[in-house]
């Protein structure tokens, strides 16, 4: 187990535990392309957002709750653990767990998580390894790098429920994760070739600039996609019309009532939200143009895909 004491190293020089779930396509927060952009310096990841700051703040509470629940000693080691064979594979652990006291080697890895209470269905039975797949891959990554066989995932749902899950080492899973990491690093990061985009956001980021003088001829496959979108949009509009008609019937029935019930259960509400206030930018610009200009910033809008009506031959 190799340890590099300097955690201020450039994140673009290695893959960490927070990257592996995204590389495998398991993360709901990042895509492989976003990881590639960070590692190749094309985009700088934001590590000072409110959710990230809250996660860092809550990590200490989750760790203390774990220690209180298990009676086990913890250590917050901010070192980077480096894979003995692949130096671009690194781990930054939330906590090390010492089952036999701090004077002995650590016996477990602890990952501290917070989750939305509505996401409980993504987690299985307490005490098992039934955690979201991105977290399972993260633990396998840490186990492969450190050689520590056991990992616990402690999760706090909102501020009301605390659970602990136990992850046993799975060498087959580790081999799979490492193989995918090696492929990603060599085929994409070192080769500077982007992985396939997985979302509209990926494509907007990948093709941010455009050439107004460039035009291309569509293939029959692309024409089929365009026609399919048109057909789906027509279906969506029909459903939206039906939904609007049904809503009108419910609203007509409710009248001035704010709540509708059925067998003592609330099935609908119709009420105004609390008043909100917004800045009338147009009036400000008209009344105080010099002041308004001081607070104007350029905004780079995303490219907009517009499907034109077919005015020629039917394709």
Task: Please characterize this protein's 3D structure.
It is a single chain. The strands form 3 sheets. The protein has a 5-stranded mixed β-sheet. It has a 3-stranded antiparallel β-sheet with strand order 1-3-4, with helices on one face. The protein has a two-stranded antiparallel ribbon with strand order 9-10. With 315 residues, the chain is α+β, with helices and mostly antiparallel strands. Helix 4 (133-146) crosses helix 5. The chain is built from 9 helices and 10 strands. 21% of the residues are buried. The protein folds into 2 domains: 2-200, Lambda Exonuclease, Chain A; 219-259. Helices cover 40% and strands 15% of the residues.
Compact overview of the structure:
With 315 residues, the protein is of the alpha+beta class.
Keywords:
three-stranded antiparallel sheet, alpha+beta, globular, 40% helix, Lambda Exonuclease, Chain A, 10 strands
Strand and helix map with partners:
Blueprint: E1 2-4, H1 17-23, H2 32-39, H3 50-70, E2 73-75, E3 80-82, E4 90-91, E5 95-98, E6 108-115, H4 133-146, E7 150-157, E8 161-168, H5 171-190, H6 200-206, H7 220-254, E9 259-262, E10 265-269, H8 281-287, H9 289-294
Parallel strand pairs: 6-7
Antiparallel strand pairs: 1-3, 2-5, 3-4, 5-6, 7-8, 9-10
Helix pairs in contact: 1-4, 4-5
């Amino acid at each position: 187990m190799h340890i590099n004491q300097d955690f201020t190293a450039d994140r673009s020089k290695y893959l960490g535990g927070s990257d592996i779930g995204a590389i495998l396509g398991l993360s709901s927060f990042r895509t492989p392309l976003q990881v590639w952009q960070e590692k190749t310096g094309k985009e700088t990841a934001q590590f000072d957002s409110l959710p990230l700051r809250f996660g860092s703040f809550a990590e200490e509470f989750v760790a203390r709750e774990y220690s209180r629940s298990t009676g086990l000693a913890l250590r917050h080691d901010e070192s980077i653990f480096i894979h003995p064979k692949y130096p671009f594979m690194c781990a930054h652990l939330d906590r090390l767990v010492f089952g036999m006291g701090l004077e002995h080697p650590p016996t477990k890895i602890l990952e501290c998580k917070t989750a939305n209470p509505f996401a409980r269905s993504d987690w299985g039975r307490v005490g098992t390894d039934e955690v979201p797949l991105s977290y399972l891959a993260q633990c396998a990554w840490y186990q492969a790098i450190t050689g520590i066989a056991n990992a616990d995932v402690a999760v706090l749902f909102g501020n009301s429920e605390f659970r602990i899950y136990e992850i046993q080492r799975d060498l087959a899973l580790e081999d799979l994760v490492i193989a995918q990491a090696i492929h990603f690093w060599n085929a994409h990061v070192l080769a500077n070739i982007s992985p396939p985009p997985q979302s509209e956001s990926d494509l907007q980021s990948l093709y941010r600039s455009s050439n107004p003088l460039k035009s291309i001829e569509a293939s029959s496959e692309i024409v089929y996609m365009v026609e399919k979108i048109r057909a789906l949009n027509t279906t969506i509009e029909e459903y939206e019309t039906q939904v609007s008609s049904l809503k009108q019937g419910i609203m007509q029935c409710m009248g001035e009532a704010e709540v509708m019930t059925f067998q003592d259960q609330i099935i609908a509400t119709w009420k105004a939200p609390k008043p909100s206030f917004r800045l009338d930018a147009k009036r400000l610009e008209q009344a105080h143009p010099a002041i308004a200009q001081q607070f104007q910033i350029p905004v780079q809008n995303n490219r907009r895909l517009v499907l034109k009506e077919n005015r020629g031959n039917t394709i």
